[in-house]
Amino acid sequence: MSHVPRQLSLGAFLHPSGHHVAAWRHPDAQADAGVNLANYVRLARLAEAAKFDLVFLADQVAIPSTDLDYVGRTTRAALFEPLTLISALAAATRNIGLVATVSTSFNRPYNLARQFASLDHISQGRSGWNLVTSGSSLEAQNFGPLDGYGEHALRYERAREYADVVRRLWDSWEDDAVVADKASGQFSLPGKVHALNHRGTHFDVAGPLSVPRSPQGRPVQVQAGSSPAGRDLAAYSAEAVFTAQQTLADAQEFYGDVKARAQAYGRDADSIRILPGAFIVTGASESEARDKFQALQDLVHPVVGLNYIQTHLGGVDLSGYPLDGPVPETLPATEGNKSRQALLLELARRKRLTIRELYLEIAGARGHWQLVGTPAEIADALETCFREGGADGFNIMPPSPTGLDDFVQLVLPELRRRGLFRHEYGGRTLRDHLGLKRPAFGSSFATRSAKATAVPHS
Question: Are 375 and 281 in contact (CB under 8 A)?
Answer without folding.
Answer: no
